Amino acid sequence: MGKQRQLKIPNLIRKQGVSVSDDCTEIQQRIKTLNEKLCGLQTQLFQIKRNSYKQTILPSKSLAANVVFSRPKNIVLTNSVGVMNRKLELLTVLTGLEVQSYSKNDHCCIVFHMQHDSYNVVKHGLRIEMKSGGNEVTDSSLPVGFNLNEIIDDYDSILKPEYLLSVHKALIAYYDRLQQYESLERLLSINGTLFKALDGSHIEVTFYMHSDDDNLDVKVILILDYRVHDIRPKTYVIKTDLPEEILETLQHHCLLFKKKPLKNAFRLIFMDDGPWQLLNQMGIHKEHTAIRPKRFRPNRNPNNDDTFRPEECSDQGEDEEYVE
């Protein structure tokens, strides 16, 4: 019996071929389906981990229980109101006027904001009644002596912006005149006498000056008159005993009162180097000063009786007869 050569397994498989059964095909299909499900679950797990990392790094801002959600319309409206208030405040600062309250065909309240140097905030107001078709100022908080009627006479309607601005301008001039008067009063101190009307529209200054032209000491009365809107005098009058030529020269120099503040103009004319000098009144009219009586000083010696004064004794007993 002859020897037969044994074939290797790979060669045997290549010669005979491999036949795949139906059971193997179903198993492969199931493996493929399980692989797809596994990929889907892995994707879900990745998303879950990703979201958990987001919450850890950026925690969610939950609204408090008492915070009410504001709609965009309310936010826009609030911003618009805020911008309008800022514009009104700016307009009040620029013009000095503010309409505090207004009711059609009833009344209108105007507030004037003053911005001069003061320790306190100064405001003035007008209440204008508009009933029965007429405009009338029924109440006001204006400073003492302020001449409102002089302004009203120049306008047909007191609700016009021109009238209200005119009142504000007159108030500014009012306080400016008072400040100039107080500055001059501090400058002169005891060397002059000042008088003014309540609103500062009329000022009189009485003082003594020395004239180098005549080498005389003369008394001078300076009278300044202002209109309601003026901060410089409209007219001025000088009353003195100087000759007419010297008086005309002095009046020409007094034109400075129409160009400079009251204190500065007075200093330039009557106090700086010039032909007229303000006199110190400490030594004037000594003869008119009353002699002060000497004060009684009691004797400090306790052994002496200071209560007895012969001049205080009554002489009624000298004329009376003694009656038993």
Write structural notes for this entry.
- Helix content is 37%, strand content 18%.
- The radius of gyration is 52 Å and the shape is elongated.
- It contains 7 helices and 9 strands, in the order αααββββααββββααβ.
- With 324 residues, it is of the alpha+beta class.
- Residues 313-324 have a biased composition (Acidic residues).
- This is Centromere protein O.
- Residues 293-324 are annotated as: Disordered.
Q: What is the H/E string?
A: HHHEEEEHHEEEEHHE
What is the count of DSSP helices, taking H or I runs of 4+ residues? 7
Q: Report the structural category.
A: alpha+beta
- Overall geometric form: elongated
Instruction: State the end-to-end distance.
Output: 212 Å
Give the helix level as a range of percent.
Answer: 25-40%
- Mean pLDDT value: 77
Major β-sheet annotation: 5 strands, antiparallel
Binned strand content = 15-25%
Query: Unreliable segments (pLDDT under 50, ≥5 consecutive)?
Result: 284-290, 320-324
What does the radius of gyration come to?
Answer: 52 Å
Q: What is the number of E strands? A: 9
Considering the chains and any ligands shown, give keywords for the structure.
324 residues; alpha+beta; five-stranded antiparallel sheet; disordered C terminus
